[in-house]
Amino acid sequence: MLTVDFDRLGLQPGDRVLDMGAGAGRHSFEMYRRGADVIAFDMDADELDGVKNLFVAMEEAGEVPAGAEADVKQGDALALPFGDGEFDRIVAAEVLEHIPADIQAIEELARVLRPGGTLAVSVPRWFPEIVNWKLSADYHNTPGGHIRIYTREELVDKVTKRGLVYDGVDYAHGLHSPYWWIKCAVGVGNDSHPLAKAYHKLLVWEIMKQPTALKLAGKVLDPLIGKSMVLYFTKPLEAVVPDALGEAQSA
């Protein structure tokens, strides 16, 4: 289940790409299939082991273009172990809402992105997320859980103040918001509730079979109640600094 639009990100075969907060690797796998040189980065060594094993399986099965490379790296988002301007594209999907020092993490993303490179950042969208928080404290009051809810304006401000240029926003997973509202209403851990079970089956059908009816429903619901907000940015070839009025100017 992908959140980022790789065409909008500008991903090309041979691009060196960082998937920061890769988790189980969903975006890393797709970028590898598209011929990128991928680094899946995360703090969780166990998840990274699974990602690396699947990278190997994909290569052995002939699922990736010749010359594509993929590897994993464990570390801290606040101190990325990479050189300045090392990556052509960066994906940070559903990770910043977990990080207390999010500005420091954003500064690191901006640092390792090359001039002219692009960044996609996805976070839970404000309205669906605030509903979840209101319905259930357990939804976010868990170790490693969500610690903030971003508005688009807040996140754009935080990233552009690190020298990147805002390119626009998409919304994704409109069918998933009602599922989490149901889960929060009946109990986040109550997977046996009939309504939660029925909706979960619908989502599995959507992911596995991609029926036309649900694709169309998603296109309608994504801009209205999409659970994820995806912001796209470019690092300019020249440094961008705010002028006295707070507007970006080339240095």
UniProtKB/TrEMBL annotation:
Keyword Heme: no
Domain Methyltransferase type: 18-120
InterPro entries: Methyltransf_11 (IPR013216), SAM-dependent_MTases_sf (IPR029063)
Keywords, ordered alphabetically: Methyltransferase, Transferase
GO biological process: methylation
Taxonomy, superkingdom: Bacteria
GO molecular function, one term: S-adenosylmethionine-dependent methyltransferase activity
SUPFAM superfamilies: S-adenosyl-L-methionine-dependent methyltransferases (SSF53335)
Pfam family, one: Methyltransf_11
Name this protein carries in UniProt: Methyltransferase domain-containing protein
